[in-house]
Target: Lysosomal Pro-X carboxypeptidase
Amino acid sequence: MQVDHFGFKNDKHFNQRYLIADQHWKKEGGSILFYTGNEGDIIWFCNNTGFMWDVAEELKAMLVFAEHRYYGQSLPFGANSFKDSRHMNFLTSEQALADFAELIKHLKKTIPAAKNQPFIAVGGSYGGMLAAWFRMKYPHMVVGALAASAPIWQFEDMVPCGVFMEIVTADFRRSSPNCSKSIRKSWDAIHRLTRNSTGLNLVSEALHLCTSLKNSQDVQHLKDWIAETWVNLAMVDYPYESNFLQPLPAWPIKVVCQHFKNPNVSDTELLQNIFSALNVYYNYSGQAKCLNMSETSTSSLGSMGWSYQACTEIVMPFCTNGIDDMFEPHAWDLKDFSNDCYRQWGVKPRPTWITTMYGGKNISSHSNIIFSNGDLDPWSGGGVTKNITDTLVAINIAEGAHHLDLRANNAFDPMSVLLARSMEVRHMKKWIRDFYASLTKKH
Amino acid sequence: MQVDHFGFKNDKHFNQRYLIADQHWKKEGGSILFYTGNEGDIIWFCNNTGFMWDVAEELKAMLVFAEHRYYGQSLPFGANSFKDSRHMNFLTSEQALADFAELIKHLKKTIPAAKNQPFIAVGGSYGGMLAAWFRMKYPHMVVGALAASAPIWQFEDMVPCGVFMEIVTADFRRSSPNCSKSIRKSWDAIHRLTRNSTGLNLVSEALHLCTSLKNSQDVQHLKDWIAETWVNLAMVDYPYESNFLQPLPAWPIKVVCQHFKNPNVSDTELLQNIFSALNVYYNYSGQAKCLNMSETSTSSLGSMGWSYQACTEIVMPFCTNGIDDMFEPHAWDLKDFSNDCYRQWGVKPRPTWITTMYGGKNISSHSNIIFSNGDLDPWSGGGVTKNITDTLVAINIAEGAHHLDLRANNAFDPMSVLLARSMEVRHMKKWIRDFYASLTKKH
Model:
């Protein structure tokens, strides 16, 4: 793959990984589901996108999973890929979309029967944004896109910056109002408990931290880590035992909230409850000897690459006020954010670029995109949850967390996700039908 | 303007020039015609796009003319802009389109009444390609595009490589079959006349060349220069006296062909006729003391930048066979072309990229683009001359040369161009009406 699609000085190439499954593919009347890989190892996404496998036979579909550059094994400069801003310079969504376009051309060239078949983009989360954007920018490459849990409006001021954490909070409140209330109280409790070195040790022990807290900076890190844990739980609050970001029980928030039944407990009791709750997320297997603050989810996600992308194009304003949400108040400060980015990566974010490039809320001239969102998913706050036109449709999944619809069929799936998947398949079948109808018309 | 929209390492900016005319603009119910500048000085394009001025009042339109980066005064690195492939690296159509998008955002921000008005892209030739591509890639920025004489299919094998020179030939044949026949004969005549140094001097004198021919390389240059002259004449074969590439009489090919009435003349007579014909193009004013082979058209066009673009993205295969056209046979040889590009600019062309990026012939999912072409214009061979859908429409101008429709109204305009312009305005009015209707619906 070309390292730089948008400049000619650098003519280097790199190996981009993609996976193909063709056991259900039909050369006559078939289709190709093309997963627009996001910020992680493509094998991991492949294993967590059971939906594509489940519908392959019905759609006579070949499955293609394309790895996003700078993730997994698709590293433009090998081990040096994250070395500095010069090597990182080709990590953008535009380059990734161009990769997908070139890959589709390559597949059409090397697999003759694929040449006259419809490609459909499928993706979740950032991959869902890429699927939608790919249909917008390269409609000649895919007849449509399923953009699952794609927060394409989580930019600038298109949605309030607080909406994300409000949904996280609502998820915990839904289990029990005392749950979110307890968590809201916990930040001050932690603050009070960690005022001296005795307290720091006490908290470190109570939470079984692998590395003891040394100072107030560590305490801030602890709070951030705990907050991120609640966020992740909201994302993966699936109705059955699963292992996406971590191995977890069914409805994990419900399990976590069993430890927060009474908000009127002492600080040390609350601390103990936090440990029990964290243990649900970090130690469902029961194997962990201590809790490691440097990890919050699977290592299959590429945290380096994502940190760079968030510091350049994918600038998503988040904020909390401690009233509408259960977190400590934190305003969105672009200047601070920008300075941090410059320190870390030597680049400055361009927070308005994504809207310039991809149209923001003004996307009604496009067609054939399904935006699916789960009501439990904090990312639904920045997603498209109302139909824009007849062919830009929103599908909302009442009991769904983060792209539940992309996961494999499960006996515990709520009706809402079964319905969503069947609507998705219906749209895809229409796109495929329209494609073959227009082929016939041409000949 | 950002030098690099697609990478974050380079955060430099440069001054991009644009022109605004608002004497006919209405803040209520108005529109904005946005000229997507092409490979030259924007003032020159502004002065040669009378159509926009002529329709401004009717459309209550503000006129904006945006200069293309690396042309005119919009040089990203000032005098160093053409220094090497590192400085040239940001000269691509994608960067130019992103410039236009950023400029429109800037205008909406700084001219409040423009915020809720429809922008329409207008361009001719490469600028017409940009107008069409801009509507395809940034439909949230413009409600439609007028792409005049835009050869968006003059790439890869979408049209036969010979079609361009065949149309040039047809233009001369239309004046009189003897005209194209004489020109076809002239190449061998020149070859025979320049076999020795006496001949070289004789030809140099007969053609009043500013610099005498010294060798066979110069002779090749002479033939290329003459061929390019016939090509340029085909492009600017306008029905009235004009000054686009050069000051010229009305229907200049007719004037040129008066010197080629008899194809059965001696080589020296034919040479004399060529001189008379060249004189129409290079010395209509009668001021030229000699003919300068280093020039073929106005210096307002940026030949450096265009040469680079033709060597990178805008790779247009041309060929001749001497049978269907009046030129010496010359096959399209990508390898030769690529080697020449590498020698000249240190870059290699990517001949399939434009199709990957802009969809080639598979563009039916887009909307609101007018493709206008003149039947006399050699570029119409690579243009869209049939309707693709109800909103991707072709307008053909029987007596039109290169984007005649974009030129100012003229008493000698043939009916075909008057009709074309009125259809163009009708489409634009519909786009504007639809825009305001959708605004009303939103509120």
Chain A touches chain B through 43 residues (CB under 8 Å). The beta strands of chain A are 18-21, 31-36, 61-66, 119-124, 144-148, 242-243, 247-248, 369-374, 392-397. Chain A has two domains: 18-153+361-441, 160-348.
